[in-house]
Amino acid sequence: MTAINRRTFVQLSGATAFAGALGLPHVARAAGGKVVIIGGGPGGATTARYLKLANPDIDVTLIEPNELYHTCFMSNEVLGGERTIEQIQVGYDGLKKIGVNVVHDFATGIDGGAKTVATKGGQSFAFDRCVVAPGIDFNYTHEGITEADAGNVPHAWKAGEQTTILRKQLEAMEDGGLVAIVAPADPFRCPPGPYERASLIAGYLKEHKPKSKVIIIDPKEKFAKQGLFTGAWKKLYGFETDNSLIEWLPFAKVGGISKVDAGTKEIVTDFETFKPAVLNYIPQQTAGKIAMDAGLADEKGWCPVDKQTFESKKVAGVHVIGDAAIATAMPKSGYSANSQGKVTAAAIAAILAGKEPVTPSYVNTCYSIAGKDYGFSVAAVYRYNAEKDVIGGVEGAGGLTPGDASPEQFKREVGYAHSWYNNIRKDSWG
Amino acid sequence: MRIKAILGSACVLLMTSGGLALGAEMSASLLADTCNGCHGPDGTSYGPASPTIAGTNKDYMVETMQAFRDGKRPSTIMQRIAKGYSDDELKLIAEYFAAKPFGRIVDQKTDPALVAKGKEIYDNLCEDCHEKDGRSAEDYPALAGQMMPYIESELRDLISGTRNLENNEALSSKERNKKQRNLKDLVDTHGEEGIAAVINFFGSQK
Ligand SMILES: Cc1cc2nc3c(=O)[nH]c(=O)nc-3n(C[C@H](O)[C@H](O)[C@H](O)COP(=O)(O)OP(=O)(O)OC[C@H]3O[C@@H](n4cnc5c(N)ncnc54)[C@H](O)[C@@H]3O)c2cc1C
User: Fold this and answer.
1) What lines the ligand 1 site, CB under 6 Å?
2) Gap between the Cα atoms of A53 and A391, Å rounded
């Protein structure tokens, strides 16, 4: 830290003296530059906002097709009926207000040599630096189902219309119906997400359709926050009893899925066949298509980046953040995308001003809500480790809510989860 | 009374640098901005429960973070977060938030009768330390406009002893005794209604 302090102190005195000689606006303009951001999720929005806060003279364009973004975070509460779809919508006025040029269009190509972004609407945007935050796209791996079936078999892994479809199916289902969630293998967006979803659907069933049940068919042998989830399920949903509202079916129990019939919703596994009334099939994932098309992804479909600046290791001048990036220890979460947006904004502001990027600091927290008055979290504080080229957790920091936390603590974490939601929305979209 | 000269100097530094000294703000801001996801932009919370940390005096914030880190103050999550920062980093973070205004932006639902009763109790039992209707953050944390569920959680932890004042090295034994006495007085004299009243009073402050 002392090295940075010394360096920044010198910069500060230099900048102040310079400003005194020439007057503020002129100097400030010299520190500008053009940044084009692709994607208006938490990653892209946070980068746009923090770039403008760092230096209002940077020309920031955000390209995003939708006028309303639907946060995936808290979309499981929409499925459970605790929240309306309107309550997970956020627009771009907050970013426009601080001078971000928001363009509702879809990026179709990035030319790293010419430094331009092309869009579906036929526009072209020049940049000094480009930030790519397109989230994920899907890779349907099982026979019998493709993305074209999502109207009947929703993934609801991008929030919005998909969330509404799944909610309506749950509402329309008769008491006694079976709900099946097919979970993806690692890595995927929001590791605790499928299990939070199962919890909140079970909460809905408990109250409205108590003869029904939700099963999770999982290619994994363990999952995020497993002890906390199963603890909650035992307390709230009779987990591991004959009347359990939730059943977790890992590979060891039912084997792999050999076929999914998107029409009849039948799922055939090595050992069993299921015929749910509602099927939520969460496919395998890759970085958003634009990242693949622009040559930013590796053979596994995710984007390798410099961990200090999030600049792509494949295309110079282009940064990739959020779900699309390989951020080593940081999971694919909204909080990660927000934290990476700040690091990237600081790095780009420094680079455009001809300075060295400063030492980054990153945080992730994922709150999960398992039912009424029952929330818990996982947290981590990270630092950049140049030697190992990783974003590593600070030793001793972070970790899970203790399994033996008091009912009062689980209850408080619901209030703090809702606070996190309100605050991260404001922090990302203004 | 502890003197907070440093707070003043942090303001001057930020003001003279304006939007120019990117580097200067960023070392502190890159650390501090990670807190905003939970505590709100610039440390002002949009609620319903997580506390606003903007405008907190620097020493109080450093001590609080150290207490979380060392397990001396209970929390749901802050002990896990605080362990990620060194003393030097905590000082930078605290200076950063001390220079931001405590935003009172959430219109919290309060009951006028409880607010009035709370004001009376406040004048008798809280005003000595949490001055200016709880607005002052000179020596102790500001409570005016703080999130009501948060005030309630902390108050209940202080009353039950879950948050043990004896662990708070920042307070003199005289300060500790006074606080214990006044909390006991709040419960003994005014009961549950008194607790609700002071929470409503602080929550009603804009
Ligand atoms: C059910 C569920 C629950 C979750 N809960 C939590 C939680 O509690 N906490 C948490 O931290 N995270 C949570 N997440 C994860 C979180 O939603 C994601 O990690 C986060 O949204 C990633 O942000 P991003 O900015 O990388 O991508 P996205 O949020 O996916 O945003 C990408 C944006 O880019 C746009 N876009 C894509 N391609 C283009 C293009 N070519 N041109 C222009 N725009 C484009 C898209 O329209 C989209 O708006 C949850 C996820 C799910 C599915």
Assistant:
1) A 38-44, 63-66, 69, 72-73, 75-76, 106-107, 133-135, 157, 189-190, 193, 197, 288, 290, 322-323, 332-335, 337, 366-367
2) 25
One digit per residue, the tens of pLDDT, for chain B of length 206 reads: 343 333 333 333 333 333 333 343 447 999 999 999 999 999 999 999 999 999 999 999 999 999 999 999 999 999 999 999 999 999 999 999 999 999 999 999 999 999 999 999 999 999 999 999 999 998 899 999 999 999 999 999 999 999 999 999 889 999 999 999 999 999 999 999 999 999 999 999 99
| Total CB pairs under 8 A between chain A and B | 167
pLDDT tens for A317-348 read 999 999 999 999 999 999 999 999 999 999 99
- A309/A338 same-domain check: yes
For domain B29-103, give the CATH superfamily: Cytochrome c-like domain (1.10.760.10)
Residues A310, A140, A219, CA angle at the centre, nearest 5°?
Answer: 85
DSSP A158: S
* pTM, entire model: 0.92
Name the nearest CA neighbour of A94 among A57, A40, A35: A40
Establish if B47 touches chain A: CB-CB under 8 angstroms: yes
Task: Give pLDDT tens digits for A255-289.
Answer: 999 999 999 999 999 999 999 999 999 999 999 99
Cα angle A119, A125, A131 (rounded to 5 degrees) comes to 85
Give yes or no on whether B29-103 and B108-206 have one common fold: yes
- Which H, E and C letters describe A324-352, residue by residue? HEECCCCCCCHHHHHHHHHHHHHHHHHHH
- For residues B55 and B76, what is the distance between their CA atoms, to the nearest angstrom? 22
In B, residues 4-23, which contact A (CB 8 Å cutoff)? Answer: 16-23
Residue A232 in domain: yes
What SS3 class is residue A383? strand
Mark which of A360, A377, A404 sits at the end of a domain. Answer: A360
Tally: H helices and E strands in chain B: 11, 0
Domain count, chain A: 2
Q: Please tell me the total number of residues recorded for chain A in this structure.
A: 430
- Residue A56: asked if its preceding bond is cis (omega within 30°), the reply is no
Return d(Cα A275, Cα A277) in angstroms, integer. 7
Clarify whether residues A246 and A355 are in a common domain.
Answer: no
CB contact under 8 A, A50 and B24: no
Strand A246-250 and strand A278-281: pairing? unpaired
Query: Per-domain residue ranges for chain B?
Result: 29-103, 108-206
**CA pair distance A5, B31, nearest whole angstrom:** 13
Give the CATH number of domain B108-206; options: 3.10.20.30, 1.10.10.60, 1.10.760.10, 3.90.550.10: 1.10.760.10
ipTM comes to: 0.90
The series of mean pLDDT values per 10 residues for chain A, 430 residues long, is: 34 38 37 93 98 97 98 98 98 98 98 98 98 98 98 98 98 98 98 98 98 98 98 98 97 97 98 98 98 98 97 98 97 98 96 92 97 98 93 96 98 98 98
